[in-house]
Amino acid sequence: MHLLEQLELTVPVFQAPMAGVSTPSLAAEVSNAGGLGALGLGATKPEQARALIAEVRARTDRPFNVNLFVHLTPKVDVEREARWLEWLNPLFVEHGETAPEKLSSPYTSFLDDLEMQALLLEVKPPVISFHFGLPSAACVTALKQTGAVLLATVTSPAEAQAAEAAGMDAVIAQGIEAGGHRGMFDPHTPDDALGTLPLVRLLSRQCHGPVIAAGGIMDGAGLAAALDLGAVAAQMGTAFLLCPETGLDEAYRKALMGQAAFHTRMVSLISGRPRGLS
Ligand SMILES: Cc1cc2nc3c(=O)[nH]c(=O)nc-3n(C[C@H](O)[C@H](O)[C@H](O)COP(=O)(O)O)c2cc1C
Q1: At CA 266, angle to CA 160 and CA 236, rounded to 5?
Q2: Is the CB of 44 inside a 6 Å radius of any atom of ligand 1?
């Protein structure tokens, strides 16, 4: 069956899961409007995730997506981290704060998070999407048995091939112009940095399953272009940022309404991975 029919979507729009920004009310509003709402759970602990999923279900009967980060957990390097803390210390002092004694990763990988895996098997979200990589084969099998539709962000033909081989039901083709973290599986491999439209075109010819376009799509004309190139839907993030339902703070909202919004930068300052910021 066509993915959109399977998900009962009347609008080919997936709201991007955005860790720290998407909320249950945004997800429910989008799903109620016929698109696919989403929760970004990449920085969320399992018990909080349980409450957020319950809140979406209280607001909509329609399918929605929950998104997890599946990165390789960074290896601890005590000496290197001590040097970072030494370098950062004056900044903490300048702001009247105490530097932490050690550094820790801001995100727990779904690969290591057995509690989150058990939670998803229990609460059975209708759609689950993965960013930065793929879950284990055993986890894919178990999640599929719940009836979940599984999606993965990919940024290249090789990642798309791996995602399909791992059993993903569809791939999200994320171009270099996408807002948020670039979902490459391994940030240390060479990056062809393909734009959304060429990537969608390549993948719509290569992939056996559906392709969802993500990156720089802000309106119906952009969506129509992506559909023309073979996508079945577009996943849009930036376009939703100013919705009243997002968790965006006032400073970020103000910046997005000014000139700064016309200048996108790739930075690696938030997690060490490439991230598009406006
Ligand atoms: C603020 C922000 C946070 C994001 N967080 C996530 C996330 O947690 N998980 C994810 O899969 N994608 C995340 N993304 C990327 C989106 O899924 C999508 O690839 C991107 O928004 C598409 O580009 P656009 O912003 O130009 O629409 C985020 C995007 C933005 C703008």
Answers
A1: 55
A2: no
Cβ–ligand 1 contact at 40 (below 6 Å): yes
In 3D, which of 69, 167, 65 has the Cα closest to residue 126? Answer: 65
CB-side neighbour CA atoms (13 Å) of 221? 0
Tokens 């099998």 belong to residue: 141
DSSP characters over 57-120: HHH-SS-EEEEEE-PPPPPP-HHHHHHHHHHHHHHHHHTT-PPPSS---SS--TTT-HHHHHHH
The tens digit of pLDDT for each residue in 243-261 reads 999 999 999 999 999 998 8
Ligand 1 atom closest to Cα of residue 218: 27
Ligand 1 pocket: which of 18, 41, 107 to mutate (most atoms within 8 A of CB)? 18
Domains by residue range for the chain, with CATH:
3-71+107-248 (3.20.20.70)
Rounded to an integer, what distance in angstroms lies between the CA atom of residue 122 and that of residue 132?
24
Which residue lies with its CA nearest to atom 5 of ligand 1? 18
- How does pLDDT run across 111-126, given as a tens digit for each residue? 999 999 999 999 999 9
Whole-model pTM: value is 0.95
For the beta carbon of residue 270, count every other beta carbon within 10 angstroms: 12
> Which residue, by CA, sits nearest to atom 21 of ligand 1?
237
Number of H helices, E strands in the chain: 10, 11
Q: Please, what is the angle between helix 220-228 and helix 196-206, to 10°?
A: 30
Mean pLDDT of the chain: 95
How far does the centroid of ligand 1 lie from the alpha carbon of residue 200, in Å?
Answer: 17
Determine the distance separating the centroid of ligand 1 and the alpha carbon of 17, expressed in angstroms: 6
Q: Which two tokens stand for residue 145?
A: 């048995």
Out of 15, 70, 177, 181, give the residue to mutate to test ligand 1, the one with the largest number of ligand atoms within 8 Å of its CB: 181
